[in-house]
Design goal:
Elements lengths: L7 H10 L3 H10 L18 H11 L5 H8 L4 H17 L6 H13 L7 H5 L6 H8 L2 H12 L4 H15 L5 H12 L5 H17 L1 H11 L5 H7 L5 H12 L2
Length: about 250
């Protein structure tokens, strides 16, 4: 029997009850929450993803959009994750051509809470499935690109990562231009954060898995100026000889 938990406070209480203090301490180290680190001050309660997904499955039908918004803005990491996964699920079941207004509402709520989507796991499990799908399926390409470029130029690290991970939805439709254009823009803007180098390299690798020539063309033009982590991530699926060639180009410049 499914429990009838409806308020953000009740959901938070349920999640805290299923937390593990020892795991929480490990998460705080793993997700870099110490002073000066990228997730400084983030708070964990120590719930594993399988348990979190199980609790979501049990309670998702009793959560309103308003409650989900409150959960996404929680100071507790796993509570924010619960709220984001609820939004991902709500978007998934709100399939075209119906429920256009609901998808717009979810997308708008997501965008209003970028400040709370503030670690790589939160971004990576939500951006491709909310902002990415909305921009790819619901907006004209020109408007979608304008929004992605705006996010990529933002000073907020996680907004920039949301932009890059949103291109995953385009990649899955064999549309590679957003990933290539945003990766080029990051290079032009001298992006310095390691988490952005990893994200762009990862998305470039995904492009290469579907269209190797597009990746090769990008590497031929930019490999020598790509940050090492970005380059390594992007060439992971290439042959040993190709990987050596592009790393040598990097080292020779």
């Amino acid at each position: 029997m499914k429990s009838k938990l409806k308020s953000a406070a009740q959901i938070t209480q349920l999640l805290v009850k299923n937390g593990d203090k020892r795991k929480a301490l490990g998460c705080q180290r793993f997700f870099k929450t110490a002073p000066g680190e990228y997730a400084e001050g983030d708070q964990f309660i120590g719930i594993t993803m399988p348990i979190l997904r199980s609790l979501l499955k049990e309670t998702k039908s009793d959560i309103s959009m308003k409650t989900a918004g409150k959960l996404v803005s929680s100071p507790l990491h796993e509570v924010r994750m619960y709220g984001l996964l609820w939004l991902v699920n709500a978007y998934k079941v709100s399939k075209p051509p119906h429920n256009t207004e609901q998808r717009r509402e979810i997308y708008t709520l997501y965008c209003q809470n970028f400040e709370s989507v503030n670690n790589w796991d939160l971004v990576d499990l939500s951006a491709p499935y909310i902002s990415g799908l909305y921009l790819n399926k619901e907006m004209p390409y020109k408007d979608a690109m304008k929004q992605l470029v705006e996010w990529t130029k933002d000073t907020h690290l996680w907004t920039r990562r949301i932009a890059m991970l949103s291109t995953f939805a385009f990649i899955r439709d064999d549309e590679f231009r957003p990933t290539l254009e945003l990766s080029k823009l990051l290079l032009q803007n001298n992006e310095v954060h390691d988490l952005m180098h990893k994200a762009s390299g990862w998305m470039l690798r995904e492009v290469g898995k579907r269209n190797k020539q597009d990746l090769i063309n990008f590497l031929d033009e930019f490999a020598h100026i790509m940050p090492r982590v970005m380059l390594r991530y992007s060439i992971e699926k290439l042959s040993i000889a190709e990987r050596k060639m592009y790393m040598k180009q990097k080292e020779c410049r």
